[in-house]
Automatic annotation (TrEMBL):
Lineage per the UniProt record: Bacteria, Pseudomonadati, Rhodothermota, Rhodothermia, Rhodothermales
InterPro entries found in the cross-reference section: Beta-barrel_TonB, Beta-barrel_TonB_sf, CarboxyPept-like_regulatory, Plug_dom, Plug_dom_sf
Domain annotation TonB-dependent receptor plug: ranges: 146-230
Keyword Signal: yes
Sections of the chain in a coiled coil: none
Pfam families: CarbopepD_reg_2 (PF13715), Plug (PF07715), TonB_dep_Rec_b-barrel (PF00593)
Name of the molecule in the record: TonB-dependent receptor
A cellular-component GO term for this protein: cell outer membrane
Boundaries of every TonB-dependent receptor-like beta-barrel domain copy: 532-970
This protein's record includes keyword Iron: no
Keyword list, A-Z: Cell outer membrane, Membrane, Signal, TonB box
Signal peptide as annotated in the record: 1-32
Source species: Rubrivirga marina
Annotated family: Belongs to the TonB-dependent receptor family.
Location relative to the cell: Cell outer membrane
Length: 1040
């Protein structure tokens, strides 16, 4: 074959390969020149999705019908500009012009259809681009909602630098967060709030509070958080301050993926700096289960009646049915020796270094058409490790020292003072997996799951003086502990539309959630130093353990709470008075099971070596193997052992009544109607809730046990309580459309707050936070609450709002924590007569162009602020009032509600340039002084304001990458709880008597995220138009 023949043959082969390649690529090229149109058609009369509506792309003659939730999707539209027509029988048609379809990029258009027969076809220009999980989208939900509500979107959560739902809630109007976990709404604590995840109530992982811990929800998993502030019958009736609904991310309209990593530090915990650590908990916090920290098998398997009890000590019998004393019984002594040495050695915190901290997360999601059906999913994982620490904190306690006979002024003095060093290392792992299946246009079934696991290791040392023991006595306290908290939730739900039955909508859900708390081996001890001087002037220091009980204490507790529920809602639209109306009925069954257990041990010293100091080595020697259990024997003249000598021996102080199981059952049904009367919307109805709260401990009841503290289980009477309630809760909400973008709302509702498991259980536990016993009260009644609300709101621009609210709440029989023994700090719970809460809220969010700043800058800069003013008054009676009037005979018989701040202020200035991928924000937050601890009868303790200023910024680089940075607490505000000493004589010039103070430091973080699109552009989203005059479509009058 010649060269030219060979060359021609090769050319022909190349041509065939090129043709084959072109043929292969043509479909892909064709697809690359098409895009997708999707969105939601909203029922303008009732706010939900409108199933079965027609969506027509006029120029193409193609379209789709909306699905059961009002969503629609049209694939493979050629790139271009189109007119889209939205229609439904009996509703005014919407026409959207200039809809841009881009190659590979889904465009989203949300529209609102209404039923006013006087309105002709509405034509709107599709101009503004927004995100479906943005503030604009949430404001549209708020405008159409039946209730007074506030919300924060994923967009704002990300921009504010929030790491979890607790951080995010600090930006919500009228909400404050205590300890980064517990949310107070409108000045009312967790008792008066309810928390849902995707519409289902969650259990709690806190043994003592009716509170969901918001730090369990990583920010990256959140779509939005909506706080309902007025009650409608289709929601649980057990709230007054607010119902907080956390919504996790939904699946996208196109394939998305993201990966992010970040690191950071605090000025109080710089990597490599020295901090106190717990040497026992181990090197890694990314683990599940207590491991070596759990109650050892020997202690767990030994019946409690085989232990030495606090009332018997070594002078008691060696066990059931035995006569000799323990120290004279070989078998009993051996058993006690084994039990005493079963726990790991008691050691003090040691010096360590701040480890590297950071987080990593990833997610992936898509929507896949399957014929006329579709499957959507999103999966996410996150892991985080952090450290919070401070050195140089202070803790102090006051005591009453007398009253001036002339002025009557009460004098107080510092009885305890400690310098405080503390460090908490934490780790969190979490996951989310959501799956939805759309079956035709009228059915959707979804499964939402979430898992979160947090571990914390704490070490703390406090050194100072204790004047209670004797004037100027040096005391060192040590505390080490480990905590695991876990939340798991799975929810199966369905949404169905039945056009054949008058467009009846059927929604159902089944939910199973579980929370777990494990606190294994909390170790604490207090060491007193005594200095004595002999006759020659030589000083000798001795050391002894002090406290109640005086020996080193080992505390274990675990809690598991499981909540299962099922709910069914039916919604039927109809016509009334010539306007759209809706009837909604439904029901719910819910069961919560709780299992709580604890073990409490301490060491008693019989004889042995003296404590040689306050450091870790001295404590390790003092409680080492050579000084625990049997350390010697006594023999008779024949060499026979007559007595066993003990060093430290273990005492089991666990109480049977502190181990309890509980169940809480709710059966609810409701009916409500929503009727449009011109510009007025009336939402009225009632909810019935029947509930039963049952708690049974392991302690047997006696003949002297009060009847309300006895529960019979399988014929055996236990210490416990069984309470049932039946309540009808009416609700009236009115929404008057002053204009297409302005509403006036009014509401009058009745809600309730029930006692918690811990409050009603006849259980007495030691509360380490207040250094006193905490006693439950089986006689508690539930609280009934009357709520009155008024709000004016104006949605004057996309993403903008001006609003003012006023509210009043009357609480009958509110439950408060009261003082039962002032001398020993013992507390319990009781119903007080009544409480009143008054408040006002103001909110503004506007682009600076509204204030005259022209050009592009005015459109990209936004200013937001919200202010809440609250005043509360609760009646006080009994010992608390008597104690207060002992100090001040003219003391009022009312005080503030615990946890209520008189003011809450949030403000932010944000800049957003989506074309350049630039975003930045300045965020400010401050809460007024709030009552944290009721005096006993010392002055009340208030948490003082700690203004916080945060800075955040992000910049998109190289297309798919985004750099993010934040600085939190720029002002470096400290945490401070202080006694309210107004009217007291401090004996000096100080105006502040600190209870607890420590530095929070300034936190810095830097991260990078990547969002590979694989050729799929970011979705373009267009606001739902209601009318040409309304920036977000809040119009109330329209029709066909």
């Amino acid at each position: 074959m010649s060269f030219w023949t060979s060359r021609a043959s090769r050319a022909s082969e190349h041509a065939r390969r090129a043709a084959a390649l072109v043929a292969f690529l043509l479909p892909s090229l064709a697809l690359a020149q098409t895009g997708t149109l999707s969105g939601t058609v909203v029922d303008g009369d009732f706010g939900g999705g409108l199933p079965g509506a027609s969506v027509l792309v006029v120029e193409q003659g193609t379209g789709a019908a909306t699905e059961v939730d009002g969503n629609y999707r049209i694939d493979r539209l050629p790139v271009g500009t189109y007119t889209v027509r939205y229609s439904f029988v009996g509703y005014a048609t919407q026409v959207v012009n200039n809809v841009q379809i881009e190659a590979g990029a889904p465009t989203q258009i949300n529209v609102t259809l209404t039923t006013d027969a006087l309105l002709e076809e509405v034509v709107v220009e599709a101009e503004e681009i927004i995100a479906t999980n943005s503030e604009v989208g949430l404001l549209r939900v708020r405008a159409r909602a039946a209730q007074v509500s506030d919300a924060i979107s994923a967009e704002t959560i990300s921009q504010s630098g929030a790491s979890d739902a607790g951080d995010a809630m600090e930006r919500v109007t009228g909400a404050s967060v205590q300890g980064g976990q517990y949310v107070f709404v409108r000045g009312l604590g967790d008792r008066y709030a309810n928390t849902q995840l995707n519409g289902a109530v969650l259990p709690t992982a806190d043994p003592d509070r009716r509170a969901v811990q918001f730090d369990l929800f990583p920010a990256g998993f959140l779509e939005n958080i909506v706080t309902l502030k007025t009650f409608t019958p289709d929601k649980p009736g057990s709230f007054s301050g607010g119902l907080v609904d956390i919504t996790t991310r939904s699946f996208p309209d196109a394939f998305t993926s993201s990966f992010s990593v970040s690191t950071g530090f605090s000025t109080e915990a710089v990597p490599g700096d020295a901090i106190v650590i717990d040497p026992v908990q181990g090197s890694s916090l990314f683990r599940f289960g207590a491991g070596d920290l759990a109650v050892p098998g020997l202690l767990a398997d030994t019946p409690r009646d085989q232990f030495i009890r606090p009332t018997t000590r070594l002078d008691g019998p060696g066990g059931p049915g035995t006569g000799p004393l323990v120290r004279q019984d070989a078998a009993a002594s051996q058993r006690l020796d084994d039990l005493s040495n079963a726990l790991t050695p008691m050691v003090a915190p040691t010096q360590g270094t701040v480890p590297f901290t950071g987080s990593v997360s990833l997610s992936i999601g898509d929507r896949v058409p399957v014929g006329r059906n579709a499957v959507g999913y999103i999966v996410g994982l996150t892991a985080d490790q952090g450290v919070s620490a401070y050195d140089g904190g202070t803790l102090a306690r006051l005591d009453l020292t007398g009253r001036d006979a002339t002025t009557g002024q009460v004098a107080v003095d510092t009885t305890q003072f400690r310098t405080d060093q503390r460090a908490t290392q934490s780790a969190q792992v979490g996951g989310i997996a959501n799956l939805a299946v759309q079956l035709g246009s009228y059915n959707e079934v979804a499964l939402n799951t979430l898992f979160s696991h947090i571990t914390e290791s704490q070490a703390r040392t406090l050194a100072g003086v204790d004047n209670v023991l004797s004037a100027g006595t040096p005391v060192t306290d040590i505390v080490t502990g480990y905590t695991e908290r876990t939340l798991g939730s799975a929810q199966l739900r369905g949404e169905h539309a039945l056009p054949a039955l008058g467009n009846l909508e059927v929604d159902w859900r089944a939910n199973l959630s579980r929370t777990q708390l494990d606190q294994p081996d909390l170790r604490q001890a207090a060491i007193r130093s005594n200095v004595s001087v002999d006759e020659d002037g030589n000083e000798t220091t001795s050391y002894a353990l002090v406290g109640t009980p005086p020996g080193p204490q080992r505390y274990f507790r675990d809690l598991e709470e499981t909540l299962g529920s099922g709910a069914l809602d039916l919604s039927l639209p109809f016509r009334a008075f010539g306007n759209g109306a809706q009837l909604k009925v439904g029901g719910l069954v819910e069961r919560t099971d709780r299992a709580y257990g604890e073990r409490f041990f301490f060491y008693e010293l019989d004889r042995g070596v003296a404590l040689g100091g306050t450091d870790g080595d001295a404590l390790a020697t003092y409680l080492g193997p050579d000084n625990v259990g049997v350390i010697g024997t006594r023999t008779n003249s024949a060499g026979e052992v007559t007595q066993y000598e003990f060093g430290h021996y273990l005492i089991d102080a666990t109480r049977d009544q502190n181990q309890y199981d509980g169940t809480f059952d709710v059966a609810a049904g409701y009916g409500m109607v929503e009727v449009g009367l011109g510009r007025l919307r009336l939402i009225a109805g009632a909810r019935y809730e029947g509930s039963r709260l049952l708690v049974a401990s392991q302690a047997l009841a006696t003949a002297d046990t009060p009847a309300d503290s006895v529960v019979t289980v399988d014929g055996t009477a236990f210490l416990g309580t069984d309470r049932s309630y039946n309540d009808v809760l009416p609700s009236l909400n009115l929404v008057y459309g002053l204009s297409d973008a302005m509403n006036l709302r009014a509401a009058a509702t009745r809600t309730l707050a029930r006692p918690t498991f811990r409050e009603i259980a006849p259980v007495t536990t030691y509360d380490f936070t207040s250094d006193g016993a905490l006693q439950g009260n089986p006689a508690l009644e539930r609280t009934l609450i009357t709520n009155l609300d008024l709000r004016w709101e104006w949605f004057n621009q996309p993403g903008g709002i001006l609003a003012a609210s006023a509210y009043y709440k009357r609480l009958d029989n509110p439950i408060e924590r009261i003082i039962t023994d002032p001398e020993n700090g013992a507390t319990s719970y009781a119903n007080v007569d009544a409480a009143d809460v008054f408040g006002a809220e103001f909110e503004a969010r506007q682009r600076l162009g509204t204030f005259g700043l022209g050009g592009v800058l005015g459109e990209r800069l936004s200013l937001g602020a919200n202010l809440s003013l609250t005043q509360s008054s609760i009646s006080i009676t009994g010992r608390e009032l008597a104690a207060r009037r002992e100090l001040d005979p003219s003391a009022p018989d009312t005080r503030d509600l615990q946890g209520q701040s008189p003011y809450l202020l949030n403000a932010n200035l944000s800049y957003d340039d989506p074309l350049r991928g630039t975003s930045a924000g300045v965020f400010f937050n401050v809460a007024g002084p709030r009552l944290s601890r009721v005096g006993n009868p010392l002055p009340d303790v208030y948490e003082r304001p700690a203004p916080q200023l945060d800075l955040t910024a992000s910049q998109q680089v190289f297309g798919a990458f985004t750099l993010k940075g934040s600085i939190k607490n720029v002002l470096g505000s400290d945490y401070l709880e202080a006694y309210d000493v107004s009217g007291f004589d401090l004996g000096g010039p100080s105006e502040v008597a600190p209870f607890l103070r420590y530095a929070r430091g300034t936190q810095f973080s830097l991260g990078i995220s990547v969002n590979p699109s694989f050729g799929v552009g970011a979705p373009a989203s267009i606001p739902a138009p209601g009318s040409s005059a309304s920036p977000i479509g809040t119009g109330t009058a329209s029709g066909d």
